[in-house]
Amino acid sequence: MKDPNGSLYRRCRGVIGDAVGHLSADDGFAMASHVALSALMSVFPFLIFVAALASFFGEADLADRVANLLFEAWPADVAGPITADVRNVLGQQQRGLLTISIVVTIFLASNGVEAVRTALNRAYRVSDTRNFIFLRLQSIVFVIVGAVASLSLAFLGVLGPLIFNWLVAHFPAVAPYATTFTVVRLGITSAALAVVLVAAHLWLPAGRPPILRLWPGIVTTLALWLIATWAFSFYLQRFANYAAYYAGLASVVTAIFFMYLIALIMIFGAELNASLARQDRPRP
To answer: What's the whole-model pTM score?
Structure first.
């Protein structure tokens, strides 16, 4: 009689080994560097666009809340210096952003989306023959939708505490559940991150496994992101001393290293999906 646990263990080991092997063969480590650098360079244009959009709707303060929301899941040692720089940028008067300069800003922000697309195409081993203009327009749509979603989440972040305070004033029994309310708020942020990840796997690459086969890589990515965030924060607090090596560039190097880990995990999730698809493919 066959041991089902042993068979499951061998299958998991084979899938993970195949995913790691293809991660190296598909230049996943180099692509993670590309995604990390492109994403970091896209953060400021994206937030400038968000600031312009928020000002257009008469809610300039929401841009600062979007920045806090964007870096909320980052380790404090990484997010602190970057958030301070973002606030300096958003605090300046941005004249003319709703004219031709906003087009340049959106284009620069879309480069991060293009980097993710290239990484996913490599992982799923597909060649993208779609029209360049279509791909760039798709990336721009991702940026605009992401900006609107960020503003919506930021607005909920402002409105949520007001609603909770109103409930406490009228229903005092709700007051002990403040921690639960905070957990729910973080859960909504995590759900939004999951939606973005699912959208990236669905629409960015030129080819992918069926939609129901994407969940193992996506769940693995989210779980490893949480572990990596905790581990990197612990590493920075206990062992790392980037200031001794990089001086004034320490905050930038720390952010790039963290985003490199995040990008590498995302690419590994795609490689895991591709590996499962290869394992399930009928063999001659």
So the answer is: 0.76
